[in-house]
Amino acid sequence: TGTDHDLDELLGIAAAAAREAGAMLVAKRPPRPEVVDTKSSPTDVVTALDREAEELIRARIAAARPHDSILGEEGGSSPGRTGVRWVVDPIDGTVNFLYGLPEWAVSVAAEVDGEAVVGVVDVAPRGEVFTAVRGRGAWLGGERLRCNTGVPLARALIATGFGYGAGRREIQSEVLREVLPRVRDIRRGGSAAVDLCSVASGRVDGYFERGPQRWDVAAGGLIAEEAGARVGGLRGRPANPDMTVCAAPELFAELHDLLVPLDPERDA
Ligand code: 2AM
Ligand code: CA
Ligand code: CA
Ligand code: CA
């Protein structure tokens, strides 16, 4: 898929929009950003800059390709008629952004027929831009990325996230209780997009999280896949919004099998 569209054009638009938004966020972030809204739980916060960054990205995409569809975390869905849909998370890791921790990113993906073909994750506070084009590999600047392979679960460093939402903490701690003794260690970075890029670049061996949205994983998931990782849900389901797992294929299988019995098919 994607052959009818100019992927270089889509990558150029995604990278320019993500970088402009990332630079704006770094420049405008006040010492103590104000929480202007909360969503699913008091932990699930929004700042004015989440909205401003998304508006900037939407404006740049619409100027370049006015007939594409756009889905963004803060602005929702706008229809199109080209078969291209942009998936935007203006700040992934808003809690880190709020506190001044340097682990948040601008995530922009382009999908054709529902499949990500271009992904850009701009980890602006670290000055790192991860990119991928379907079939052409994943890159950190000029460096081609390969995920770690041959790591058994017991020696795997595993990133995870605890997605927000009322009533989810109890289940998350039950899952962690089972996983923690079976892996090398756990990292909880706070940005799903950055976690997926960390798998791609071998900074962790794998990642799992229950409940990410499409905008959390569209770009980072393609970057991880293009670095050789497998990205998916449990029992062959898609990577979101249920449990999302990412690792080299052998580790994916081990992590998957550990998580299946721990995954209560509950909504929380
Ligand atoms: P955000 O910073 O864009 O809100 C934290 O574990 C990760 O989960 C972040 O990537 C965060 O994205 C995301 N997240 C936020 N709210 C969520 C929700 N209600 N459900 C699932 N994931 C969420
Ligand atoms: Ca959010
Ligand atoms: Ca997000
Ligand atoms: Ca966000």
Automatic annotation (TrEMBL):
GO terms classed as biological process: inositol metabolic process; phosphatidylinositol phosphate biosynthetic process; signal transduction
Catalytic class of the enzyme: hydrolase
Protein EC: 3.1.3.25
Gene3D superfamilies, per database record: 3.40.190.80, Fructose-1,6-Bisphosphatase, subunit A, domain 1 (3.30.540.10)
Cofactor(s) it depends on: Mg(2+)
Functional note: Catalyzes the dephosphorylation of histidinol-phosphate to histidinol, the direct precursor of histidine.
Protein name: Inositol-1-monophosphatase
Species for this entry: Bailinhaonella thermotolerans
Lineage: Bacteria, Bacillati, Actinomycetota, Actinomycetes, Streptosporangiales
